[in-house]
Design a protein that fits this description.
globular; eleven-stranded mixed β-sheet; alpha/beta
């Protein structure tokens, strides 16, 4: 299917923005933006002719003229509006971003290594430029668009040998407006040797209107470090979300990624891990819940580039209404990555005859001393299980809710940040009660 490209808004917005930059337009950092815009303009949006996008038509995005959020404007945002997205009992630093820009009046920083990216760029641009863009795949059009309009995001740096207490909550809020808006937050997370940290990214919408959140997060895991990265997306059903998370692991590091997608009209999640040192362990967990006409696409890549590493992957999807899900999971085992142990599982629960799922697990193995498995299942609720619950006096809708929640909770329970896990639990139960899954 041909995708009609609409790129003029990006070019004209960039030109107008650049005119007011003064000296910043001559910096090395802005040179990166200019190169990224050129790459985006030359390549354009991906089309369904590309294998990576075969099941996801981005025409709703490509046919829209967006207005980039180039300035911080918290107008109309009240503390109580932001507060409803906080987690009860949360302990740690919290950075709040309004339309991709750091909002200090709503934030609470308890650690000196937790800052806004714009602040670090002003004071120590070398600390950013040493890492920025190193993990992003060349030629990725959405990553290029993110870089072209990059201004702010989160910068988290954990020194060697530090176990950060609590967690770091990165809260991103889109406010909407009369015209379709673009937010391009960029997050850079650098964790030192032997350090430990939990990072939570959450995405929400205030108000109506159409938004495109195009976010890139790069995570560098030092030797022997332990990282949990949790992402929860619950933006409005009039929103688009394209998120890219790229992780590099050095020897002996352990990284767990938990991704939960609930909102958005068209959502694409790209999660990639490269195991560059021996003895690493990577765990990718995901849960998506689609209803109505939502399209949720999860693409994951685990690159075993070194020997004696383990990876575990479990992605689950619940599809109801006329929603559509996509899962494409790739595991590469390179020639020198002997003694690799990799397992990948994708499971989908269809609650409607009109819901669809396209799943494609992939293994590419170039080593001979490995243990790798993958599998995918797509099905409906078991009639025997429903009958068992109904025979004990449980109504049909309640029985469906119980079984659906049990299916999803397998992923939710893998989130170790307790306030987030409790919030996800409550949100899923509420959605079931509202009928957004069982009755959509």
């Amino acid at each position: 299917m041909k995708t009609l490209q609409n790129l003029e808004w990006a070019l004209s917005s960039f030109q107008q923005w650049e005119k007011g930059m003064n000296g910043e337009a001559e910096t090395e950092f802005h040179g990166l933006r200019r190169s990224a815009l050129k790459a985006f303009a030359e390549k354009g949006y991906p089309t369904t002719r590309l294998e990576e996008w075969r099941f996801t038509n981005v025409q709703p995005i490509a046919g829209t003229s967006f207005v980039p959020a180039l300035r911080y404007d918290p107008s109309g945002v009240r503390r109580e509006d932001v507060g409803k997205f906080f987690f009860p009992g949360f302990q740690g630093s919290r950075l709040v971003f309004i339309n991709g820009h750091y909002a200090p009046e709503f934030s609470e920083r308890q650690d000196t290594g937790v800052r806004s990216l714009a602040e670090v760029l002003r004071e120590d641009s070398e600390a950013v430029l040493r890492h920025l863009g190193r993990l992003v795949k060349p030629g990725d059009p959405f990553a290029a668009l993110n870089t072209a309009f990059l201004q702010d995001g989160a910068f988290v740096r954990v020194p060697d040998g530090v176990e950060m207490p609590g967690a770091v909550h990165l809260l991103f809020i889109s406010t909407g407006g009369e015209k379709p808006a673009l937010q391009t937050p960029r997050n850079l997370i650098i964790v030192g040797t032997g350090s430990k940290v939990s990072i939570v990214e959450t995405y929400h919408t205030l108000g109506g209107g159409t938004n495109l959140t195009n976010v890139v997060t790069e995570v560098f895991a030092g030797e022997g470090s332990v990282i949990e990265h949790d992402k929860m997306q619950n933006e409005s059903l009039s929103s688009f979300h394209v998120g890219t998370t790229q992780i590099e692991q050095k020897s002996g590091s352990t990284v767990t990624s938990n991704a939960v997608t609930l909102g958005g009209s068209l959502v694409r999640n790209n999660v990639g891990v490269v195991l560059v040192g021996e003895g690493c362990e990577a765990t990718l967990n995901g849960l998506s819940v689609g209803t109505g006409a939502q399209l949720i696409d999860n693409h994951t890549t685990i690159d075993h580039a070194s020997a004696s590493c383990e990876s575990h992957e479990l992605y689950k999807a619940i599809q109801d209404g006329r929603s559509r899900g996509v899962f494409n999971g790739k595991i590469f085992v390179r020639k020198d990555a002997q003694k690799t142990d990799a397992k990948q599982t994708n499971k989908t629960l269809l609650l409607s005859d009109e819901a669809m799922m396209d799943t494609k697990p992939q293994l590419e193995i170039f080593a001979d001393d490995v243990k790798c498995t993958h599998g995918a299942t797509v099905g409906q609720l078991e009639e025997e299980q429903l009958f068992y619950l109904r025979s004990r006096g449980i109504p049909l809708d309640a029985a469906r809710d119980i079984l659906t929640f049990a299916f999803a909770s397998d992923v939710i329970n893998r989130v170790h940040v307790e306030p987030l896990r409790e919030q996800l639990d409550a949100m899923l139960r509420a959605r079931l009660r509202e009928g957004r899954v069982t009755g959509a």
